[in-house]
Each structure stands twice: as structure tokens, then as C-alpha cells.
Amino acid sequence: MTTVSFISWVYLVMALSSVGLIVATVRGRRPENKIRLVDAPTRDVWEIAFLGGGPARLVDAAVAALHEDGRVAVGEPGVVTVLRNAPRDAVEAAVLNAAAATPGGALAEVRRRAMTDPAVQEVGDRLAQRGLMRHPARGRVSRAWANLQMAGAAVLILGAVLLTAAGHLDADPVEVPTVVVIAPAVVVALVIGGICKQSGRGRLTEAGRLALRGAQATHHPLAHAKTAVPAALLVAIGSAALLSDDVLREQLAQAQTAMAATAGGSSSDGGNTWVDGSAQAAWCGGSGGGSSCGGSHHHGGGSSCGGSHHSGGSSCGSHHGGSSCGGSSCGGGSSCGGGSSSSCGGSSCGS
Questions:
Q1: Membrane-spanning residues where (predicted)?
Q2: Which of 112-126, 169-183, 276-290 shows the lowest mean pLDDT across its residues?
Q3: Nearest-angstrom CA–CA distance, 235 and 216
Q4: pLDDT at 334
Q5: What is the pLDDT of residues 113-150, one digit of tens each?
């Protein structure tokens, strides 16, 4: 191969790949459905929590609700005890079932199991259907493409160095080394790949961000100075750090940290950059860090997250075509999300 032909080939491949990646990323970030104004407001505390921090934040909010009215007790060292099995809805039932199924009632494991429950995952599905969030399955192609482009660019630089050293790029000498000539194309490809990969981590649409801000402004403690804000709502609009119960706040924080350490991800809370680590692209809420979904109770996923009972050899279970995994990243938690201590981010399926 001549030097000129090699350089031309590099620029052509990097240009075509970058253009295709940008198009795929833009398409992947479009809402699944056209947003109608009537669909924008959040409908309950669980939706607020999921928007704010994915499955992890939602589960933390449910734990806070159950603890506040005495249906469960959360104490040191991170143990959940069911005192009254009386769920008011499917989300609370998911947490109570997770607590009953967890030997010793370890809070971190209860959170992980509950995040993978279909009832919790379904909240994210509803929000995606209304255009407030992007489903993890959307953008999966562009994220893989971004990784491939970045790896390919690195290989090209290494290949150019090796070919030059072997004398295979000297047939048509140029005034500067070949590596220097192709460097602009490779650097641009790396930058575009990194930007597109990062942009795919966001789960909230613009309508979702507006809905979350509206809910936070409406339910902020300062707006209810004369009335107590329910614990679940405090967690939903902010995080477990807003709880006045010192023991519950500390135990939730420790559970988030423990799950993040297990997942090797971030322990930060937030729901805008969840990561889904499952092959099934489930809701793994995590904010920024690695995603660690607990295994699904019913469907084995194909990811690298820690598994729960009945998970088919992996971690992130799928639910209705790929949405049933919590993550500890976003998210997530939630990401994959809320109380995220786990980020497929925010917030973290195990966080």
C-alpha cells in the first residue's frame, strides 16, 4: 500500500464513520413518541422519583414510605425488617417482596432485587411511552458504534506507526511522517466518538427535564413550610439526603455506597446520565458510573451485573422486550439511576 492511498483510505473511513455515527446518535435521542402537553406532568411520586434517579431513587422513595408509616423498619447494620406486609400499590409490593426474599434483610440486596422488579421497570416504560424519557434500547447501536470508532481510530494510529517502521508506507514519500498526516482525522474521529458515546448516556428528554423541575418546584419543602412533606416525596424530588430520619438516611447512603463498590461504579445520585449494562437494555439507573443491575426475578438478562434469584446467568433481566433491570450505577441508581450508587444512568440500577 502506498503512503498516499493509505492516508486517503484513513480520511475516507473516519469521515464516513463519523457522519454515520452522528446521524445514528441524533436519531437515538429522539423521543419514542411525539410528546403531548397532557402527558408531560408527572402522575405520582414514583414517576417523579424515576425521572430524578431511575430505579434506585424510586426504590429508596418506596423504602422511605414504608418506613415512615411503620410497615418496615430499617436499622443498623443496614437491615430491613417487614413489620406489616400491606402494600398500597405494585411498587411497594415489589419492595416488600424483595425484603421478604432477602435472607437477613440486607438493605443493599433488597434495593437490588426491587429495582429489577417488573413493577419498578414499568414506571420507566410508561415515562418513555409518554416521551419523558428515552428507553435504554434506543441509542444502543450508536453507543456500540462510538466504541467501535474510538477503538478503530486507536488501531489506525498504531497501524500507521508499525507500517512506517516496517517500510511499507515509503513508496510515495511525503514531507512529514504518515502518522502526523493522519492524526487530524483520527483525533476528530476520537472526539466525535467520545461525544456521541457520552450523549447516549442521558435518559431524560427535554420534556422530562421540564416535568422533573416542575415537580421539584411544586413539592419542595420550602413550598410546604407549614405542612410536612412525605418522606417518599422528599426522596423523589431530591434524594435520601433530604430525609430527617438520621438512621434511615445513613443506612440508605451506606447501601448505595456498598452497591457502588460491588459494581465498581459511582455512588453519586442523579438520574440524567444513567448507564444500562444489560444486553437487554433494561432500565439500569445510575448516574455516570458503571451499571450494575441486579438480576431479574424472572428473566435472565445478558449483562455483567450481579444476579438475583432466577436470573439466567446474568444480571439484568428483561421485561417486555428489554426493560426489567435495575442497575447500580442508572440509570441508576438508576444508572443503570435515584439513589444511585451503583448508572444504563444517573442513578443506577443498583445504586
A1: 6-26, 144-166, 178-196
A2: 276-290
A3: 11
A4: 36
A5: 999 899 999 999 999 888 888 887 777 788 888 899 99
Distance of CA 27 to the CA centre of its chain: 19
Rounded to 10 degrees, the C-alpha dihedral 68/228/123/116 comes to -30
Cα–Cα nearest to 199, from 239, 249, 143, 156: 143
Each residue of 80-96: pLDDT tens digit?
999 999 999 999 999 99
Spatial separation of the C-alpha atoms in residues 317 and 51, rounded to whole Å:
21
Higher model confidence: residue 42 or residue 344?
Answer: 42
d(CA 298, CA 305): 15
Do the beta carbons of residue 292 and residue 335 sit within 8 Å? Answer: no
Q: In whole angstroms, how far apart are CA 271 and each of 232, 321, 331, 340?
A: 16, 22, 6, 8
Instruction: Give the C-alpha separation, 203 to 136, whole Å.
Output: 8
| Placement of cell 450494575 in the chain | 292
Number of other residues whose CB lies within 10 A of the CB of residue 244: 11
At 151, the amino acid letter reads: A
pLDDT bracket for residue 319 (50, 70, 90): very low
In whole angstroms, give the CA distance from residue 239 to residue 288: 16
Q: Rounded distance, CA 326 to CA 274, Å? A: 11
Residue 299, pLDDT above cutoff 50: no
Tabulate helix, strand, coil % of the chain (nearest 5): 50, 5, 45
| Cα gap 268→339, rounded to integer Å | 8
The pLDDT value recorded for residue 141 is 80
Residues 6+ apart with CB under 8 A from 176: none
At a CB cut-off of 8 Å and minimum separation 6, what does 198 contact?
A: none
DSSP three-state, residue 161: helix
Cα distances from 2 to residues 157, 166, 167, 184, 300, in angstroms, run 16, 13, 10, 19, 51
Side-chain half-sphere of 88: how many Cα atoms within 13 Å? Answer: 7
